[in-house]
Write a structure and sequence with these properties.
The complex is a heterodimer of chains A (127) and B (107).
Chain A lengths: L2 E5 L2 E3 L5 E8 L7 E7 L5 E7 L8 E3 L7 E6 L4 E6 L8 E13 L2 E9 L3 E5 L2
Chain B lengths: L3 E4 L2 E4 L5 E7 L7 E6 L6 E5 L3 E2 L7 E6 L2 E6 L9 E6 L11 E5 L1
Parallel strand pairs in B: 2-10
Antiparallel strand pairs in B: 1-3, 3-8, 4-5, 4-9, 5-6, 7-8, 9-10
The chains are: A mainly beta (127), B mainly beta (107).
Chain lengths: 127, 107
């Protein structure tokens, strides 16, 4: 059974740091890109960023709103992805989900979807 | 960044109805469009990818169509478990933007 489990959320003061973990089981972690998606209370989904697999250089990309403050990394030996969040702002308050990205081939191109999600972990940034 | 706009934001409907949700992209995304369903307190669930491909295990009353900049999600014969929030997402280019969501509510 595929499982993604986020941990590390909690209450943190503005300007401080927090690291979230996404522990995976049920599939070969190293074969997949992992994304982070967040949802502020009562709001919609916002893509945060992702990390490609080792086969694609473990390259990363981020939403403009978090670029320069958040860093995604992975440890394939432990099947864990991390979201390091620095210089946190009150507007970063949200439930953070990690997701598995599955790539498919279509119409002479490639694209992807998020087929498995964790249950989410709440990050509250407040003084 | 590609902007995704869903309409309506809220959609009252009854059991057995057929409903359609529209998603428009600010530029062409070919057919690189995914649909997700989210229930309160739960993670989103993938329904459709590549605009019209049904994810394994998703009931056939869900269908998607469209290409370029305009897409639709149609749910026929609404069931009680279908009342939820629906999001589109473009997978054409980064950042991988979502629509703002459509709340499908019981009338």
């Amino acid at each position: 059974e595929v499982q993604l489990v986020e941990s590390g959320g909690g209450l943190v003061q503005p300007g401080r740091s927090l690291r979230l973990s996404c522990t995976v089981s049920g599939f070969t972690f190293g074969d997949y890109a992992i994304n982070w998606v967040r949802q502020a209370p009562g709001k919609g989904l916002e893509w945060v960023g992702f990390i490609r697999s080792k086969a694609y250089g473990e390259t990363t990309d981020y939403a403009t709103s978090v670029k320069g403050r958040f860093t995604i990394s992975r440890d394939d030996s432990k099947s864990i992805a991390y979201l390091q969040m620095n210089s946190l702002k009150t507007e970063d308050t949200a439930v953070y989900y990690c997701t598995r990205q599955t790539t498919y081939y279509y119409d002479s191109g490639t694209s992807y979807y998020f087929d498995y999600w964790g249950q989410g972990t709440l990050v509250t940034v407040s003084s | 960044d590609i902007q995704m706009t869903q309409s309506p934001s809220s959609l009252p409907a009854s059991i057995g109805d057929t409903v359609t949700i529209t998603c428009r992209a600010s530029q062409t995304i070919r057919r690189y469009l995914n649909w997700y369903q989210q229930k309160p307190g739960k993670a989103p669930k993938l329904l459709i990818y590549a605009a019209s491909s049904l994810q394994s295990g998703v009931p056939s009353r869900f269908s998607g169509s469209g290409s370029g900049t305009e897409f639709t999600l149609t749910i026929t014969s609404l069931q009680p478990e279908d009342f939820a929030t629906y999001y589109c997402q473009q997978s054409y280019s980064s950042p991988h933007t979502f629509g703002q969501g459509t709340d499908l509510e019981i009338k």
